[in-house]
């Protein structure tokens, strides 16, 4: 697969003059040299979506893909929670439960978490920095189209394919289980297909990261400097740097695991192989948490001040804390391995760094709270999700600090406490920030407005469901309930039933979201004003809304060559043409 991708890249590099490429964002004719593409208009229908290299179209594709994955992963966990309402095995077999457990984790992290961030960043980073498009539009398209086959490979075990069963390794794929050692069913080809699908998603993320770094460094409007670069772009830049160091390591580890499984090598099937896999996996796995959470932090840092009526408090400290998290995230991986018997001196150093990384996260939290303090708060749906993000992130962060302590981790490791902590971050924070972004920018990519009442119902049901489900899991962990079990002792039944009720409340909330999102996209009231959130009243309009205003005024679908307009960010002064005189 790697050789094939290199061959494709070489062939594209041979026939393309990358730097002379002019994106046909406006759909009109583009004059230039022979190397430039000239088109009267975009293709329409299915051909448009299969061949597009426009960053906004690709952002939409990422969004649709990730929301489908979110639905699939959500339905998997609903089935698991219904099974867990009863202590014994009732609806699902233990092996199928393990299959759902494995695929749910991988789906939510690799097929939803990373792509939903790519949806926002592809659509809005060029608009925020005043670029025409991404630095490498075709590579951008290739990065997306690697994801659908990756998803099919990961889910292949659930399809009616003879002799193929779903992987049951859990999302961490610990060896020697995942290496097929023993008499279990883990030598089934379903595990190999899952590993290949994961490899594709990693290649996709790496290609996207290179593209974002190149775009932010080289394609910024001359008025957008490092001093006034918006906070969302800062978090995407940091995330892309983490991806460049983390995902290739995961790809290498997966390749070694595939060689063990199919060609008789002995990377992980010998003494010490299990510890080696954990070191390699968690060197990727913990930065992955920050790969997922930093851009949502950027969304909240961008959206929350808009509805607090003031600029983000301590912008520079938010940027510095973002960079600090990026650096420190590579020094905490072994806190997942405190119970493995590694050298106590090594454990102590990782405990210190794990405690230290809470500091920049706390800086962000206090900055968000201070931004709201004495502000002109407007409780719109995006703002509600931002506030929900902050509160859930505090709970998830504080519970994580306890796990950074070695003696406490030795007691709570592999209990439901870890599940509750992790899901407060992944669902309570990352997904909430994603919803805040979807509602905030809904007028831009649909041209319509959603139903506000349904949006608030979505928030409150999600907030109640999240806290009921995952706080109960924290309590289950304190009670000693181990995670990843399909059955349990009867004394845990009440707590599990409460968690199942919370999961069903979450499900109802997401059903309302889907209805509101689709129905409003098709039939919602059209937006006639380029400032639907009245950001101009507080001088908080940012570049993407300026672009949207021009789009409405000129009736140009996708931009094109425009005169310089005001570029405002969260972090600096509004930059106008007059400032250059």
TrEMBL record:
It is found in: Membrane. The chain crosses the membrane at residues 62-84, 105-129, 141-161, 193-217, 237-259, 290-308, 317-338, 350-370, 382-404, 424-445, 457-478, 498-518. It is a multi-pass membrane protein. Residues 49-536 form the Cytochrome oxidase subunit I profile domain. It holds the Pfam family COX1. InterPro entries: Cyt_c_oxase-like_su1_dom, Cyt_c_oxase-like_su1_sf, Cyt_C_Oxase_1, Cyt_c_Oxase_su1_BS. Keywords: Electron transport, Heme, Iron, Membrane, Metal-binding, Respiratory chain, Transmembrane, Transmembrane helix, Transport. The keyword Transmembrane applies. SUPFAM superfamilies: Cytochrome c oxidase subunit I-like (SSF81442). The keyword Electron transport applies. This is Cbb3-type cytochrome c oxidase subunit I. It comes from Haloferax larsenii.
């Amino acid at each position: 697969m790697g050789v094939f991708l290199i061959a494709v890249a070489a062939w594209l590099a041979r026939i393309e003059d990358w730097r002379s490429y002019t994106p046909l964002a406006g759909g009109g004719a583009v004059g230039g040299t022979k190397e430039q593409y000239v088109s009267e208009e975009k293709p329409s229908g299915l051909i448009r979506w299969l061949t597009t290299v426009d960053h906004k179209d690709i952002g939409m594709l990422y969004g649709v893909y990730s929301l489908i994955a979110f639905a699939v992963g959500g339905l998997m966990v609903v089935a698991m929670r219904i099974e867990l309402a009863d202590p014994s095995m009732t609806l699902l077999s233990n092996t199928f439960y393990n299959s759902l457990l494995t695929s749910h984790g991988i789906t939510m992290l690799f097929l939803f978490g990373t792509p939903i961030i790519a949806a926002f960043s592809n659509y809005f980073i060029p608009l925020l920095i005043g670029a025409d498009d991404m630095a490498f539009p075709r590579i951008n398209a290739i990065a997306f189209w690697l994801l659908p086959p990756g998803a099919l490979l990961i889910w292949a075990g659930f399809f009616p394919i003879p002799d193929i069963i779903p992987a049951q390794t859990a999302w961490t794929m610990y060896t020697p289980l995942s290496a097929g050692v023993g008499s279990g069913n883990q030598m089934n080809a379903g595990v190999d297909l899952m590993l290949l699908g994961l490899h594709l998603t990693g290649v996709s993320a790496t290609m996207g990261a290179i593209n974002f770094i190149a775009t932010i460094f080289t394609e910024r409007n001359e008025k957008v400097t490092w001093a006034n670069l918006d906070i969302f772009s800062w978090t995407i830049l940091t995330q892309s740097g983490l991806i460049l160091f983390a995902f290739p390591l995961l790809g290498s580890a997966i390749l070694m695991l595939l060689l063990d499984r199919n060609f008789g090598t002995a990377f992980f099937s010998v003494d010490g192989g299990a510890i080696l896999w954990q070191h390699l996996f968690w060197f990727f796995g913990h930065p992955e948490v920050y790969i997922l959470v930093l851009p949502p932090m950027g969304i909240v840092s961008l959206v929350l001040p808009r509805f607090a009526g003031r600029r983000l408090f301590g912008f520079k400290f938010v940027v510095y804390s973002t960079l600090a998290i990026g650096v420190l995230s590579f020094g905490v991986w072994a806190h997942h391995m405190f119970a493995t018997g590694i050298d106590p001196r090594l454990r102590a150093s990782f405990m210190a760094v794990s405690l230290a990384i809470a500091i920049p996260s706390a800086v962000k939290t206090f900055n968000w709270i201070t931004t709201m303090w004495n502000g002109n708060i407007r409780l719109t749906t995006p703002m509600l999700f931002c506030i929900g993000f902050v509160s859930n992130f505090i709970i998830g962060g504080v519970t994580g600090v306890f796990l950074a302590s070695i003696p406490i981790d030795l007691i709570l490791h592999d209990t439901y406490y870890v599940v509750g902590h992790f899901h407060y971050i992944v669902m309570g924070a990352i997904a909430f920030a994603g919803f805040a972004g979807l509602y905030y920018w809904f007028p831009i990519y649909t041209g319509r407005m959603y139903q506000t009442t349904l949006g608030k119902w979505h928030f409150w049901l999600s907030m109640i469901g999240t806290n009921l489900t995952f706080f109960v899991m924290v309590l289950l962990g304190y009670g000693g309930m181990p995670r990843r079990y399909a059955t349990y002792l009867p004394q845990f039944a009440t707590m599990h039933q409460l968690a199942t009720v919370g999961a069903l409340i979450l499900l109802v909330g997401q059903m309302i979201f889907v209805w509101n999102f689709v129905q409003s996209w098709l039939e919602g009231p059209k937006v006639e004003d380029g400032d639907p959130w009245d950001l101009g009243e507080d001088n908080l309009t940012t570049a993407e809304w300026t672009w949207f205003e021009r789009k409405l005024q000129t009736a140009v679908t996708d931009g094109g060559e425009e005169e310089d307009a005001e570029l405002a960010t969260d972090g600096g002064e509004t930059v106008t043409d007059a400032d250059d005189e």
